[in-house]
Write a structure and sequence with these properties.
- There is one protein chain.
- By secondary structure, this protein is an alpha/beta fold.
- The chain has one domain (9-248): Rossmann fold.
- The chain is 45% helix and 15% strand.
- It is built from eight helices and seven strands; from the N terminus they run E-H-E-H-E-H-E-H-E-H-E-H-H-H-E.
- The chain has a seven-stranded parallel β-sheet, sandwiched between helices.
- Helix 5 links the parallel strand 5 and strand 6 (180-187).
- The longest helix is centred in the middle third of the chain and has 28 residues, at 106-133.
- It is globular and about 50 Å long.
- The model has no long low-confidence stretch (mean pLDDT 95).
């Protein structure tokens, strides 16, 4: 299959819906074999099946990105099914509901740091040795404009995304000599299953207007917006780009 990612193999976490699904679909259309990871087994299987029906190469791999054994299982799935791994997209993420910072329970705090930050540690632990032994690789970490221009009510979530951004830059600096590139994509609030959590209020046209008013281009981010940015970072066109964070935000961070 031809395309900008022809011959490459990627793991995309949280790929059963939202941004992750969009990334998996875009990668598959560009010739990349995709390990579709998620905790939502039925939805993830459906995504992988749809990619195959469309002529792509894809396999679902169930796994919790906060668990070391499950993350290792993603590498194993890529090597068993496709014989290699070139790209890891750390897309899986979660948030607490938009609310005062003191109202977020400790269990919620721990959960969002595990999903949003520890997952990157675990993919590094398991994938960096493989990349080093095979001449290089590429990590793309989906952070957020929340890590650059935080919104009130999402304080602890903002902190996780700030951690993703600076961790990605640190990884890029340390792993560059191994030809391992690490970049970030920072979406603004998007039309995903977490929209009401980010808003902290019902998803109504009136409430949407409050958030859209902060985005100069006047709309939320869409899966294809994020997917296109990830495609660039994953492609050979970005061979000399590492440690970069690209805001896909309609001007929110201006």
């Amino acid at each position: 299959m031809s395309g900008r990612l022809a011959g490459k193999v990627a793991i995309v976490t949280g790929a059963a819906s939202g941004f992750g699904r969009g990334i998996a679909e875009r990668f598959a259309r560009e010739g990349c074999a995709v390990i579709v990871n998620d905790l939502a087994r039925d939805s993830g299987e459906a995504v992988a099946a749809a990619l195959r029906t469309a002529g792509g190469r894809a396999q679902f791999a169930f796994g919790d990105v906060t668990q070391s054994s499950d993350v290792k299982g993603l590498l194993d799935a890529a090597l068993t099914r496709y014989g290699q791994l070139d790209i890891v997209v750390n897309n899986a993420g979660t948030t607490h509901r938009n609310q005062p910072l003191l109202d977020v329970a400790e269990t919620e705090f721990d959960r969002i740091y595990a999903v949003n930050v520890k997952s990157i540690y675990l993919t590094a632990i398991h994938m960096v040795p493989y990349f080093r032994s095979h001449g290089g690789g590429c990590f793309i970490n989906v952070a957020s404009t929340a890590g650059v221009r935080p919104r009130p009510g999402l304080t602890w979530y903002n902190g996780t995304k700030g951690a993703v951004i600076i961790t990605s830059k640190g990884m890029a600096a340390e792993l560059g000599p191994d030809n391992i590139r690490v970049n970030c994509v920072n979406p603004v609030i998007g039309e995903t299953g977490l929209l009401e959590q980010f808003m902290g209020m019902p998803d109504t046209p009136e409430n949407r207007k409050k958030f859209l008013a902060t985005i100069p281009l006047g709309r939320f981010s869409r899966p294809e917006d994020v997917a296109n940015a990830c495609l660039f970072f994953a492609s050979d066109e970005a061979a000399f780009i590492t440690g970069t964070c690209l805001e896909v935000d309609g001007g929110r961070c201006v």
